[in-house]
Hints:
Strand order of the largest sheet: 1-2-3
Strand content: 5-15%
Number of strands: 3
Number of helices: 6
Number of domains: 1
Shape: globular
Largest sheet: 3 strands, antiparallel
Amino acid sequence: MQDVGVHQWSDKVGDLLFRCERDVISPSEIVSELHGLMASGPAHICAEIRPEISRSTLQFLLDAGAIESAALRLLTRCGYMLSTDGEGIFIGSVASTITGQEHSYSGSSAAVALCGALAMSLQDCV
Length: 126
């Protein structure tokens, strides 16, 4: 049986995804929360992909309005792809190093699409 802490962490990742889908959270909040979840997540899920960017550097980028750059800094240890569809919706894809699967997410910005895909990848590892 898995640790209760893993399930609580997974619930937080799921809650972040739910708020992304409902568009009730700003892109900068998504990036910030995802950074925290990756930094505090279970080692068997997050150890290989923990963000190399410090909380203060991430916050500096977010405060400067460089939200996409901040999101990309979360993905430095992951394979990813970003594209847009014919209507200008961003589609982010992340390849999980743990499961070997790819997860895609569409959003109104590059940051939302990439962070959504990464969050889906993390949640699938539980």
